[in-house]
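User: Small ask, check this?
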Amino acid sequence: MLNLSYNLSQILKDRLQKIDLIRKDILIIPLSPKIELQMRWDIMIDRIYNSLALSDNSLTKPEMVKVLTSHSKKLSSEEEDVVSYKKAMDYISQQWLMPGKNVAVKDVLMLYDIFCKGGLIVPLSRIQELLDYVQAHEEHPVIQAGVISLGILRTQPFLEGNDRLSRLLSYLFLYKNGYDVRGLIEFEKTWREDRETFSQALKAGLEAARITLWLEYFSNSVLTALAQVYKKIQDSTPDNLGVHSSFWELSHRQKSILSLLEQPGLSITNRDVQKQFKVSQITASRDLSKLANLGLLFTHGKGRSVYYTRV
């Protein structure tokens, strides 16, 4: 029987209240599209780097940036993890801004299959039990995110990749309830920077009869991350991680590609770009990849069936 009970302690209440206040402030602050795009890129890189570092991926942050911007076809296993993790986050942002929709077992399996190929080692009913528990009541999204994270680590449903899955599902529950905060939330940085405290909090969560201490730690991580984002917004100082300033400038052709997709429901392929703009397959691929990496296009499908839509 799954036991993830907790108390809504005064510490937890206070942190949730502070999270709600700073989230509201971040959402109403006007930001230029370019600055917001740069900040979202920085946060995306931080998410990938910190999460994979916690899973013992040895690549540095600049190396991960290079993987996502160089379009190399020959990748090491650690580099493939970077690309796959980015695809998993893209799937969340494409599919899960849906407050009224419950997460089902098939959704967990689909998310897992994007970034990992390990086998399922528990009955599907164990995953269903966890999802039912998290979604039984309309609890605060940060609590849901913290519970699903620890629940996956307690359940260990797959042969490998459970730690990455736990963090991705936390983002999914935050995102679907509007707590992705303009794509600017990233809570694993404090975990990576202070592995000892993280390990202690996680150990307590996995072993204790109640998981209140874990939720207090998790909510504090979210609060710390949002406070850092709020300060950056006030200062208008994105990190510009590992890319030249020209990375944020769109060519006339790239702007035209976005214009072609302004009508809802339209999509475009690499071959469409080649024909429309009389460019090579490689040039079309670079344009579409850049727009997708910047978060301006969604990527759908695999291989030759890949197509793109506007965000």
Q: What stands out?
A: The two ends are 41 Å apart (CA to CA). The CA atoms of residues 131 and 267 lie 33 Å apart. The longest helix spans residues 212-235.
